[in-house]
Amino acid sequence: MRSCSIPCRSREQIASVSETSRTSNLVSLRRTNLAFGMDPSAIDAKGGFSFDLCRRNAMLMEKGVQPPSFRKTGTTIVGLIFKDGVILGADTRATEGPIVCDKNCEKIHYMAPNIYCCGAGTAADTEAVTEMVSSQLQLHRYATGRESLVVTALTMLKSHLFSYQGHVSAALVLGGVDVTGPHLHTIYPHGSTDTLPFATMGSGSLAAMAVFEAKYREGLTREEGINLVTEAVCSGIFNDLGSGSNVDVCVITKGHKEYLRNHRMPNPRTYVSSKGFSFAKGQTEILSSKVTLLKERVVAIEGDEMEE
To answer: How far is the C-alpha of 110 from the C-alpha of 161, rounded, in Å?
Structure first.
């Protein structure tokens, strides 16, 4: 009898916490609805899925409250397994809404000497997540004295992203070679993962996947793999406005990696004015001026002064 009372009390405590949380949410909803003049009877507590927030959001839009806006991100990241390892590829365009804010950014991030990760989504999120997991892998290598496993990085990344339920905008293509062989995984922002022989992510992923599905085969050589990855990224660049600039490629094999920065530049700047920009004098208004005289004597901050 004594052993049965403990789990019963635990269930009662859990039910009490859940009921308290639900009551708090209902009170918050009632306050919002009363403030905007909505009928309080519309939020009666019922079983099943609650549409309270859906009705609340629709009512707020009718009152003129604008929903939060978002900006579309654009990227093409790809990866494939060839006979000796893994090849990753990415474009180099970073956008801020309709503005290209960086034409040559790095989207292939270091995770471990034998593991790299391509990131699509919000640049700050991909940088922070990959850097955080990379530091954890480094500490793990210090503690164990062994090479990092790709599945270890995969578990750390998807566990972190799953805990935020997709609010961390980081879509990743993880690739590497460890003692168990080459591995390639995709990780979605909400934490789900896929293990594939070739993968694409980002807004240009459909165009890149079309190239992979048409031309990928098992047993590709290094040069064939690099050319296929480059062609897939270029397909995303030419068919997606959010992708552009250059193609970065990272080749990972057993005990070696090669990062080919700007491996291909499909959109080079073909014309540059030899004269540059010239502005006639007097077109720029001078608001203020200050003249500072330079001292010829050098004052020694540390050590002894030299004789003149």
So the answer is: 18
Residue found by looking up tokens 């590709």 in the block: 220
23, 32, 75, 253: the catalytic one is 75
Backbone region of residue 142 per phi and psi (left: phi > 0; alpha: psi in -120 to 50; beta: other values): alpha
Report domain extents, the chain.
Answer: 2-62, 77-264
Domain 77-264: give its CATH architecture.
Answer: 4-Layer Sandwich (3.60)
Q: What is the pTM of this model?
A: 0.70
Distances 94 to 38, 148, 196, 241 between C-alpha atoms, Å:
43, 30, 26, 11
Nearest to 79 by CA among 136, 117, 24: 117
Q: Measured between alpha carbons, how far is 108 from 233 in angstroms, rounded to an integer?
A: 13
Residue 76 annotated as catalytic = no
pLDDT in tens, 50-107: 777 788 888 888 988 887 776 677 899 999 999 999 999 999 999 988 899 999 999 9
Distance from C-alpha of 240 to C-alpha of 238, rounded to nearest angstrom: 6
Q: List, in sequence order, every residue forming a beta bridge with 100; answer none if it has no partner.
A: 95
Handedness of CA 177, 180, 185, 191 (dihedral sign): negative
Interior CA angle at 191 toward 208 and 136, to 5°? 100
CA–CA distance, 126 with 171 (Å, rounded to integer): 8
Q: What distance in Å separates the CA atoms of residue 93 and residue 104, rounded to the nearest whole number?
A: 6
Q: Which amino acid is at 63?
A: K
Closest CA to 263 of 276, 282, 250: 250
